[in-house]
């Protein structure tokens, strides 16, 4: 790494989560800066992000697997090797034999160029990304109800005016601590309501903590909604003028009165009524959801149930009120807008829409008929690798599926069955270590690019330092590969601003319209929330104030019913496992496990259990435990937590090897979003000798 000569403090944003806290980088020194999302705060991950820039684990040389070992190679050799293998595989098995897997942490430019690379340079339909694992149910539910999916359709600073906020399946006090400052008024007004099976740090802050059994929060939302209707608290004028579908929705919710919901969820009927009354009496209220509601086989409907509640309260599109979803990955919002999803083209357009295909093909300079159709969703794609009819080669950018995908051992087996695995990464992640070719790429502060935060605000991440010699940007990699695959020079630009200019054209007229956003405007830090349909447009901080995105301008109540977890507990697997994040680590941990200050605090996999549950398994604090499901077993250190439900264990998913929480998770998919059920599966607990 070479630090720029002047060592100026460069204004940029954190490399990790979707809050995209403002920070400055001077050399490798990090400092927070005043920015609305973080108000001058950073969490431990942000403060220590400078360690990523000097990590000795950094990859700086391409590698090719030869005789079972990865050996250094030149860029020319590595790219030529890839192109020769891809060309052979396509000739033998067809274009869909080559697949591409992206990530929700990639910049908008990378997400855009990756989708274009798949569909134009490779002509494959087999492209999807890890955002399918963490935001797709919210996206599907938001689109269904509102006609537009933007995580927070309002600036998150609006939350500071709320006297009631219901957080369902969200733990921001641990995952994005600076966010909590926006909840101060709700906390002061005793209006912070947290729905979570665990007593998380966020639940500790709450006035009301509802702890439903895992996988039952859809029923809980129905119970609160039922109480609202039964007690005459529905905002009828709003329902009549701004929504459709109430009656069909109510035909199901009418059967879920609070006492019945109490039997399913364990949440007292009186508490359900208390929450309904609190939300209805608030002057300004919000309902917010996150992964806890989404990562279920019925995740889309679960988010939909909370949206129904918010609509009955008259919140979405109101002044100082609303419904939103807290996105997790750094570019979780932008990552789903620019065409790296199996079913989407840039501008948040559907790939089956003839007008969308025509428009995007025009920007790309190709025949719309040559654009592939929809491909497999993320888990289905991984599950098909190396099978008859499945992809034989895979490119992975910005993802570590060996740790982060459900049923992780099976996914590793599928990777091993490939003829070619190419991984572009900053460090030797667990997935990179399985690759045939590893390509070392630049990271956040070494490159320029845009991100779209959880509130739909587009931000510029500036280059603060020069990258180490030998690494290339992902854009340079895609550009170089495309040219070697026969694409005309210039069709795949490697410069971020040039790619963004093309992205703007591709997004024009789409739901997520970036056409009026320029790097110059972003350099001035104009608060540009999409859509921004022209260069003189100020952006759209608040959506839905006058109308929702459906043709009739109304939001949709959607009838949803409680189903419960795909894998209920039984005699063999009597407990339920929840997976999630901890303060010190981010996603698969590939970055944060390299930061000494963070690993000092949380160095290894652990399992949180109630002391009685541990004792029944013959375990005590600090013991090595084995958590076993139908798909595998995780080894983790026991942490006894008296606030845990006795029927639940919790595992963070940031750790590799035998501590991988995703060795046990269930890939049961939501039928609409194709999101796996990470949040609950049936398990047993035993000493490390096994069940
Ligand atoms: Fe902010 Fe998230 Fe970075 Fe923490 S990880 S500093 S909350 S952007």
TrEMBL record:
> What SMART domains does its record include?
Molybdop_Fe4S4 (SM00926)
Q: Which UniProt keywords apply?
A: 4Fe-4S, Iron, Iron-sulfur, Metal-binding
UniProt domain 4Fe-4S Mo/W bis-MGD-type: residue ranges: 7-55
What Gene3D superfamilies does the record point to?
A: 2.40.40.20, 3.40.50.740, ADC-like domains, Dimethylsulfoxide Reductase, domain 2
Name the InterPro entries on file: Asp_de-COase-like_dom_sf, MoPterin_dinucl-bd_dom, Mopterin_OxRdtase, Mopterin_OxRdtase_4Fe-4S_dom, Prok_molybdopt-oxidoreductase
The protein, known as: Molybdopterin oxidoreductase family protein
**Annotated source species:** Amycolatopsis minnesotensis
